[in-house]
Design goal:
By secondary structure, this protein is α/β, with parallel strands linked by helices. About 35% of the residues lie in helices and about 25% in strands.
Amino acid sequence: MPAASSVAAELRVEGLSAGYLGTPVVRDLSLGVRRGEVVALLGANGAGKTTTLATIAGLLAPLRGTVHVGGDDVGGRPAYRLARSGVSLVPEGRALFFGLTTREHLRLARSRGGVPDGELLELLPELRKCLDRKAGLLSGGEQQMLAVSRALVSRPRLLLVDELSLGLAPVVVERLLPVLRRVADELDTAVLFVEQHVALALDVADRAYVLSHGRLVLEGAASDLRHRRDLLKASYLGEAGYAAEQAVARGGSPEPAGEEGSV
């Protein structure tokens, strides 16, 4: 797979540093996502995944680097303008209006040339029974389906999804994540998603990037990473943490970080 900067991508991020109040959380990040491709953004809590999505979506301005969508430099462009140009975000926590029905959510989000209700319900058939129910009365899985459908109704060119599985049982996640694959295949949408269930994410994704402490530490085809759990674990834990875990697994004591013998 070519480097992100050489791929003709719908989303291209190069040398991105992003954070809050001038302090970077993400540093020198480069990645790309093509139309019809599903890419997972993985990493431990606090790695910078949500900050990355928020910056791409226009909720945060980049501190350094560039964000291109469809060839246009959109770094620092406000979220409402990005939404109008085809960037949709499913935020962590869903951000639904509990007093509105599913149908009302979709009506408010619809734009000219959007996805018809029939096509949308083919992607998310379980949502059909929820059309006239208020969001506050839906189950967690139904609320997440509503959040995804609201993002899709405008037929986005780029879909960003932050923690689809948050607060959901694994059996529900197994039903929801494949929807992202269908969105890419059937709507020709570029999909970048953050997910804590690594194995399930790699089953759906074409490629994956792994962040650790705000930096990209691993990237590759999902099919390759599925078989390299040692690399994934080392990326999540960091070298010292991985060495300590391996020592415990062998029945020994973990070496202090920085001591001779640490990885």
